Amino acid sequence: MNLPLQKRLLAATVASTLSATAWALDPMPVRVSEGLALTPTLKLGLGYDDNFRAVESGRDASWVSSIAPTLALGTDTGKVKLDLRYTANHELYRSSRKDDNTDHLLGLTADLQFDVRNRLRLAANYRKMEETASADQKVENDKYNSAGFNAGYTYGADNASGQIRLGLNHDRLRYDNGLDPISAKRLNADKERDSTAVTGAFLYRVTAKTRALAEARLTDHDYVSNTALDSRNTALLFGAEWDATAFTSGSARFGRERKDFDRAGKRDTSTGMWEVGITWAPLTYSSFSLNTRRGFDEGSDNADSIKTQSWTLSWKHDWSERLSSNLSYTNSNQDYDRPSNPREDTLDSVGIGLTYKMRRWLDVGVGYKHTENDSTQAGKSYKRNVVGVTVNASL
Predict the structure, then answer these.
(1) How far, in Å, CA of 236 to CA of 307, rounded?
(2) 5-394 CATH
(3) Domain-by-domain residue ranges, the chain?
(4) What is the annotated signal peptide range for this record (predicted)?
(5) Nearest 5°: phi and psi at 342?
(6) pLDDT per residue over 292-311, tens digit each?
(7) How far apart (Å, rounded) are the C-alpha atoms in residues 388 and 386?
(8) What's the gap between Cα 20 and its chain centre?
């Protein structure tokens, strides 16, 4: 989903703390009918957040408990694979009951294998969310819903010399906030938008497990009321994808991105762009991952756009068949395009988590994460610590 920038950063650096390591669960599906199975899971969490509004001064702290049941319904016939899942995540803030909220996430994916050369992947999702860490929390938490649809078509067999990939993506972002008592305008209405992206890529096999690629992207942002930010992003990238070779797998894309506004007087801009994701597994029970990105995000806090550069380094290690750990560090730099009032934020986050597999159907995890944002704008810097324990269960 094309969610607001700060929401994605907070989700990546803080919200995942209470489940800091990947599940080791081996759920047992319930047979509904021939070829159709239902898989229920349940995650319980209890944590302490010393700055759940992510503010510089006047910090609010609270114990936060959560319960998140998930239902997944799926089938796999070989040529058709369907997955429908729904999660409801209820959070209860012991020190601020007005911030209690329930997030809803619904997703459907369909993988269709027509023959060895033609494959189609379809995905649709809907989210209804509330964020305590938001720009307007002194009035009301950010409350929004987003809906998206994605289609990706691949032509070319897995072992073919060449492949063509085509993609179409549409995201719809709307806010459910009330009126600002000072301005009498609906909060966050200026951020509502529809974003449509089309992509095309050509891949050429250079070795048995490596493909070179060239990719073009075009994204159109259409704002509902703040039409001054209507714009088009174009990007041209070159790089490679590779399977497990010499203990590594991943992809790397490098190129340039340009943002052009529809309204005269807005400053068009461009930047170098990259997307890299690499996993190195020198041992079967230990792996290192590097993910880094540079490009444009949609503007917020009166910025026309935000140039973002981020990278995350993580280490996952299995100490035994039951005990695993995950250590991660994230650095992100956001340069707000505001000619009259420039702003630059640097966010650093470090987290550690342990997961113990008590049973096939039961995991227990503990985690800690420290996040620090350093901003050139007064009042936008903050520090945040989250510690917690989770219990993940299935049938």
Answers:
(1) 17
(2) 2.40.160
(3) 5-394
(4) 1-24
(5) -65, 150
(6) 999 999 988 888 999 999 99
(7) 7
(8) 15
